[in-house]
């Protein structure tokens, strides 16, 4: 089974002006596609061939196949990133995820502040995640290509803080890029759709 490049859930210009068509064209069409193409080349004829992307990540982590792990993780992370943003994003969350935000952070503004601080203080390339950890929410940072896949935590949404994600639009102003994500693009419907039923999970 060849790993396919995931489809963008919107047009290349749909996130304007917060993510430009030029940035998304390079980010999706060059970087994301490059990880997928490299991964397919690396796994061809190996015991990884035919596995799902998630299973490749788990097995590569267990066997310390770093090149496969990095490319598989980046392929998965980017597919997840596109869903974490929406042209109609930035709205106020509701329902279960709103309740969990209030329980864990007090309110949405506090979550945004902590997410911002995590993203600004993260040194170098990596990812910022909102994850479900049991019945709670957490903000998690991972370096380079790492992700929560294969852990007890469930990723709900993510933000890419590699420079290629924002430099054409924001230059070195990472803070403005993060603000655009939190205020205009963040897709709370996608985050809510990733919540797991902890009681059912514990009973299984």
Question: Keyphrases for this structure?
Answer:
globular, disordered C terminus, minor pseudopilin epsh fold, three-stranded antiparallel beta sheet, 2 domains, 3 strands, mainly alpha, 204 residues
Task: Describe the structure in your own words.
This protein is mainly alpha-helical. The chain has two domains: 21-84, Orthogonal Bundle (Helix Hairpins), CATH 1.10.287; 95-196, Iron/manganese superoxide dismutase, C-terminal domain (minor pseudopilin epsh fold), CATH 3.55.40. The protein is built from nine helices and three strands. It has helices at residues 21-43, 53-63, 66-84, 95-105, 108-121, 167-170, 174-185, 188-193, 198-203, and strands at 126-133, 136-143, 154-160. The protein has a three-stranded antiparallel β-sheet with strand order 2-1-3. Strand 1 (126-133) and strand 2 form a beta hairpin. 34% of the residues are buried. The model is unreliable at 199-204 (pLDDT under 50).
How are the SSEs placed, and which strands pair?
Blueprint lengths: L20 H23 L9 H11 L2 H19 L10 H11 L2 H14 L4 E8 L2 E8 L10 E7 L6 H4 L3 H12 L2 H6 L4 H6 L1
Antiparallel strand pairs: 1-2, 1-3
Helix pairs in contact: 1-3, 2-3, 5-7
């Amino acid at each position: 089974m060849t790993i396919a490049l995931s489809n963008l859930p919107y047009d290349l210009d749909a996130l304007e002006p917060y993510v430009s068509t030029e940035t998304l064209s390079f980010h999706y069409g060059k970087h994301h596609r490059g990880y997928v193409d490299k991964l397919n080349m690396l796994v061809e004829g190996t015991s990884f061939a035919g596995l799902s992307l998630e299973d490749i990540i788990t097995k590569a982590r267990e066997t310390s196949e770093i090149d496969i792990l990095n490319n598989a993780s980046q392929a998965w992370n980017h597919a997840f990133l596109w869903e974490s943003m929406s042209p109609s994003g930035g709205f106020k969350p509701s329902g279960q995820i709103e309740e969990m935000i209030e329980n864990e952070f007090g309110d949405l503004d506090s979550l945004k502040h902590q997410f911002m601080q995590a993203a600004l203080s993260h040194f170098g390339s990596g990812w910022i995640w909102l994850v479900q950890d049991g019945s709670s929410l957490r903000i998690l940072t991972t370096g380079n290509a790492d992700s929560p896949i294969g852990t007890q935590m469930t990723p709900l949404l993510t933000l890419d803080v590699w420079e290629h994600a924002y430099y054409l639009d924001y230059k070195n102003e990472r803070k403005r890029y993060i603000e655009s994500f939190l205020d205009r693009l963040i897709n709370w419907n996608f985050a809510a759709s990733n919540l797991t039923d902890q009681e059912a999970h514990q009973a299984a």
